[in-house]
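Anyone up for a design puzzle?
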């Protein structure tokens, strides 16, 4: 019951789903899809070196963040690296330099209960036990390959100022080759820039896979109408073209062991495709006329991946899930109270955005009994 309480407190206090390690406490309806995702996407594809892009579409409050937390939990379960990118005006799809810089500094994995964040710090953490040579790898950015190799195999020969220079380069800072040479770091040049950001990203994702990780999960969460606000503009073309190139890099083997997950608002992808038709060609946006697409489809709506199709069914299932984790003596009484609260929310929120206010109301009521 302690974990349930922590999960509910998180929902009430922040208005967002609980962290990945607690998210299963309040999840219903996604078990079958998650089993498919683990087996077919992670085990049979990403772990074997494949890369893929997946898009989940839903309204604000409809459960996108909840699904992202569930998938983050699976990344941790399979010892994947994870990085979350919140798309906004400050961190936009049309600026891959900033996105790559964010990934370099926020990619993380858990090791013996510790969270290691940042590409450079991950390499430093691996250095004592992982001496795999990297310089022979034929990847797109030689400078980042060589810098990563030094971080793994040559760190002991560097003094502290040199280590800081190497770390800065691997973190996406503008550190020139001359500056690095003065610290006895050779073969490392071309720091992250607008021109090479895509190449840097593709390179470090492949390095991660070569180091023995199951792969990397990148989660992009759209927080504004990115393409609607940019429709028919040059900025929309830039963003759509970069997304198209990332999809191509995933499908043709340039990137290894990576899954990019985009949680987007309704009509995001049609708007993106209008801005750049080649993107729509890559995604095959046509949905079957006679029902939901199969789970292998790259674009799924949230209702496609849940067995709880109706709001009333979701309400019943989530109440049962909560009550099952409570002492038996308060079961029916609590169930009746939660049903009253839930019915009130559904009556006042008739659209697809009912999940967030519903779960928050149920969490608040349940906490009165814990």
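Challenge accepted. My sequence:
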């Amino acid at each position: 019951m302690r974990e349930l309480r922590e999960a509910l407190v998180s929902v009430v206090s922040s208005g967002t789903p609980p962290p990945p390690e607690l998210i299963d406490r309040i999840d219903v309806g996604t078990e079958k899809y998650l089993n498919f995702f683990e087996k077919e996407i992670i085990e049979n594809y990403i772990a074997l070196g494949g890369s893929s892009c997946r898009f989940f579409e839903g309204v604000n409050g409809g459960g996108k963040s909840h699904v992202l937390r569930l998938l983050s939990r699976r990344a941790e379960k399979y010892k994947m690296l994870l990085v979350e990118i919140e798309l906004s005006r400050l961190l936009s799809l049309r600026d891959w330099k900033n996105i790559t810089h964010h990934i370099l500094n926020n990619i993380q994995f858990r090791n013996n209960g510790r969270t290691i964040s940042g590409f450079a710090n991950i390499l430093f953490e691996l250095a004592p036990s992982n001496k795999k040579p990297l310089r022979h790898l034929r990847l797109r950015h030689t400078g980042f390959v060589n810098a990563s190799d030094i971080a793994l195999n040559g760190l002991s020969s560097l003094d502290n100022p040199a280590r800081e220079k190497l770390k800065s380069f691997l973190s996406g800072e503008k550190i020139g080759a001359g500056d690095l040479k003065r610290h006895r770091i050779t073969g490392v040049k071309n720091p992250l820039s607008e021109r090479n950001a895509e190449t840097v990203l593709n390179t470090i994702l492949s390095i991660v896979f070569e180091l023995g990780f199951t792969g990397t999960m990148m989660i992009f969460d759209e927080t504004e109408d990115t393409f609607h606000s940019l429709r028919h503009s040059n900025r929309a073309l830039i963003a759509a073209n970069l997304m198209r190139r990332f999809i191509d890099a995933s499908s043709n083997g340039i990137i290894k062991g990576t899954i990019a997950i985009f949680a987007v608002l309704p009509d995001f992808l049609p708007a993106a495709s209008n801005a750049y038709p080649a993107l729509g060609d890559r995604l095959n946006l046509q949905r079957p006329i006679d029902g939901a697409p199969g789970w292998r489809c790259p674009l799924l709506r949230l209702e496609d991946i849940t067995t709880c199709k109706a709001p009333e069914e979701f309400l019943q299932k989530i109440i049962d899930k909560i009550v099952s984790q409570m002492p038996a003596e308060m079961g029916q009484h609590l169930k009746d109270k939660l049903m009253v609260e839930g019915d009130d929310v559904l009556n006042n929120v008739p659209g697809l955005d009912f999940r967030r206010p519903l779960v928050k109301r149920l969490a608040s009521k349940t906490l009165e009994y814990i």
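A detail worth pointing out: The chain has 15 helices and seven strands.
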